[in-house]
Amino acid sequence: MRMGEGVEWGLHCCVTLGWLEDRAPVSIRRLAAWFDLPQEYLKKRLQALARAGILTSAPGVRGGWSLARPPERITVMEVVTALEGPLEPFQCTEIRRRGEGGRDAGGEFDQPCGISSMMRRAELAWRRELAGHTIADLMERAPAGARRTRRNYDRLVD
Amino acid sequence: MRMGEGVEWGLHCCVTLGWLEDRAPVSIRRLAAWFDLPQEYLKKRLQALARAGILTSAPGVRGGWSLARPPERITVMEVVTALEGPLEPFQCTEIRRRGEGGRDAGGEFDQPCGISSMMRRAELAWRRELAGHTIADLMERAPAGARRTRRNYDRLVD
Questions:
Q1: ipTM for the whole complex
Q2: What is the DSSP track for chain B?
């Protein structure tokens, strides 16, 4: 069970756009070259982030991509959900109701299945961690990355 | 991003085999009919659980499947991992090192990527919840399920 590669792309793009805030917008061509990613695939991921109100794009030759909100107000959870949909990997199809085992259950199945409830609580612990971190947190934890990013970007612009 | 249906099957089979401990082993034919599941697909899932030391199978006409350990000693995490592999959905391919952005990083990339570390910590919170619950916990939380299961099973045997 794997997330798509777009999650790594999206998170790195958000952090990078945060670091380059005063140089933004950043063109899709430059963002793709930044991480050596296929431009058209990356664009689809950025568009998903724009639909979620995380990124914004400006048209034109000097246009490109920027964060749509301050990085303090973009959680990792939002980025992941925009790219992967709701993080509820466990699939409950209510097999408890089916077949010979589920006969004559009376009102028992009015209650949620304990297995499903437990799996959902565990997923909630995961989502809570992702919701508790923002793009700003990730930016702050990598001061060397911020310096490298600005330095390399300014070299390109020159 | 979804777990396979086998996780629901495997967890319900473990709980059911726990409830039927004194009637076990339970034949694959009966377990499949219990939840109205395709017998051959279910068998592959049970074999994965046997390889992980969670279930055991006895051959012969009166053979079938049982828990290989007391249900207090089988965590939900073990069942999920046996069926899905390691729960590390986030894929880190180190795109930070690639392309124009990763140039002249010096020793920066000797440190783990902050994005990857944060995603792993969040996954750990999820796995910790799954590891903190056992098949015995799931059995205890559903006393009506235990009664229904034994009642329906004894009807079949009669």
A1: 0.92
A2: ----THHHHHHHHHHHHHHTGGG--B-HHHHHHHHT--HHHHHHHHHHHHHTTSEEEE-STT-EEEESS-GGG-BHHHHHHHHH-S--------GGGSTGGGTT-TTGGGSPPHHHHHHHHHHHHHHHHHHT-BHHHHHHT-HHHHHHHHHHHHHHH-
Contact A152 B103 (CB under 8 A): yes
Q: Is the pLDDT of residue A157 over 80?
A: no
Contacts of A98 in chain B (CB under 8 A): 35-37
Q: Over the stretch A22-63, which tens digit does the pLDDT of each residue have? A: 998 999 999 999 999 999 999 999 999 999 999 999 998 889
Instruction: List chain B domain ranges.
Output: 5-155
Q: What is the mean pLDDT of residues A113-129?
A: 96
- Report the chain B residue with the minimal C-alpha distance to residue A127: B122
B133 lies within 8 A of chain A by CB: yes
Average pLDDT (B42-48) is 97
Tell how strand A55-58 and strand A64-67 pair up.
antiparallel
* Contact in structure between B127 and B77 (CB atoms under 8 Å): yes
CATH number of A5-155: 1.10.10.10
Question: What are the chain B neighbours of A112 within 8 Å (beta carbons)?
Answer: none
- Looking at the complex, does the CB of residue A112 fall below 8 Å from at least one CB of chain B? no
Nearest to B125 among A102, A129, A149 (CB): A129
pTM equals: 0.91
| pLDDT for B157 | 63
Q: Which residues of A touch B133 (CB under 8 A)?
A: 118, 122
Query: Are A144 and B119 within 8 A, CB to CB?
Result: no
Rounded to an integer, the average pLDDT of B75-93 is 95
Chain A neighbours among B 41-70 (CB < 8 Å)?
Answer: none
